[in-house]
Amino acid sequence: MADASPVGSASPKWESSAKPGRLKSYFPQILKWFPSADSALAWRFLERWPDLQSVQQVSRQRLKTFLTRDARSCPPDVDQFINQIREAIPATQDRAVVNSSTIFVQGLVSELHLLRTTIQNYDKQIEAVVRQHPDFPIVTSFPGIGKALAPRLIAALGTQRERFPDASSIQSYRASRPCAKLAASANGSTLGGHVRSSSSRRFRNGPSIR
Predict the structure, then answer these.
(1) Hey, which end of the chain has fewer CB within 10 Å, N or C?
(2) Low-confidence stretches of the chain (pLDDT beneath 50)
């Protein structure tokens, strides 16, 4: 099941906000039904049905309508998914634990939605500013540099261009192939080579633009 969360330079994380332990204590099935607790579909699911009992009381048709509303995040087998919901066994019958946890989880999901919207607004503003930068056409001409890496590279190069009289000086600053390395770090791949510890940390890890 694909995650339909917005794509941006950053995204709010459930794990860093609540830790999955809270769900494990009363609704662990969520962590199995969805590929990630950070899935936008998982957040919408928890907003409507924050505990197992509430979702098991929902009609099959209503569940199917909810799950198939967005084809990008729809489970590959909706009927099997619904069967898993029907057959699930509560992790606890302690209503004090369930009730307090559902309030906490629903409140957190609301905050994460708001944070995600705020990050999207930042991303839009950053993209608009970067597109007006005189170096934007140059930076985006490099292979593997997209809208997430372009502002980082522009910020790393800075405005003191006398530091880089030629292309080799930029390579020395980065250690080797700055654009390829930045692209590799963004998509999690490895393009080969070794990052020297003496190279610029701003190029190695990417500067923070937040």
Answers:
(1) C
(2) 1-9, 175-199, 202-210
What is the pLDDT, as a whole number, of residue 13? 59
78 close to 64: Cβ distance less than 8 angstroms: yes
Does residue 206 contact residue 154 with C-beta atoms inside 8 Å? no
pLDDT at 91: 96
Q: Which residue has the tokens 């020395």?
A: 172
Share of the chain above pLDDT 90, in %: 39
In terms of C-beta density within 10 A (0-12 exposed, 13-18 middle, 19 or more buried), how is residue 42 classed? buried
- Give pLDDT, residue 11: 59
CA distances from 61 to 65, 67, 134 (A): 6, 10, 54
* Residue/partner pairs of 110-113 with CB below 8 Å, 24 or more apart: 110/47, 111/17, 112/12, 112/14, 112/17, 112/43, 113/43
| Residue that has been written with the tokens 């190069």 in this structure | 157
Write down the pLDDT at residue 2: 41
